[in-house]
Design brief:
The protein is an alpha/beta fold. 34% of the residues lie in helices and 20% in strands.
């Protein structure tokens, strides 16, 4: 199953690299940065439900990469949950991509954390690093704010207070 998933994600990644884009003159892969289309992914959430980033087109999406043993990540999650609850009815989607491997956090511990924190946004387990690779994530927490058209408008790293007027204002301005 895992080799098939890797193959499918690789094919999708390569197809995305071959799409027409006015910003480049050759079939190079776009940078994962402000002003560029976010790389699409198709994966399962923590409960096995299919999740596709492009399926959220028309919504503002926060893709939040995190790990269980990352203090900055864990500190950022409560305000991210409050932001999501505040704006989800206006079109905000949050996809929290857990970048732990099977050796650093069990699926059970992640589910317990979600339950303990009463998280309502989508949590995806990227234990093979496929989504992290597509977004070129080097360290966590890493955040990509994506507009309704699938374009990255902000890239952030480190602990984030999502209730800060600048961060909440950014999200609200995109909705």
């Amino acid at each position: 199953m895992k080799p098939l998933r890797i193959f499918i994600v690789t094919v999708l990644f390569l197809l995305a690299a071959c799409t027409d884009n006015d910003r480049r003159e050759s079939a190079m892969i776009d940078p994962v940065d402000r002003g560029y289309r976010a790389p699409d992914f198709f994966y399962s959430d923590i409960n096995g439900n299919p999740v596709r980033l492009s399926g959220a087109r028309g919504k503002v999406v926060v893709v939040f990469f995190w790990k269980m043993r990352c203090r900055e990540c864990i500190d950022s999650i409560p305000s991210l949950e409050r932001l999501y609850r505040r704006f989800r009815e206006k079109g905000l989607e949050v996809m929290a991509v857990n970048a732990d491997t099977v050796h650093t956090a069990s699926i059970h511990s992640i589910r317990e954390f979600i339950k303990e924190k009463d998280l309502t946004f989508t949590v995806i387990r990227d234990d093979e690093g496929i989504i992290s690779l597509a977004f070129r994530v080097i360290r966590v927490p890493a955040v990509f704010v994506i507009d309704r058209d699938g374009i990255i408008v902000e890239v952030l790293e480190g602990r984030i207070d999502w209730l800060d007027k600048d961060k909440a204002g950014l999200i609200e301005s995109l909705l």
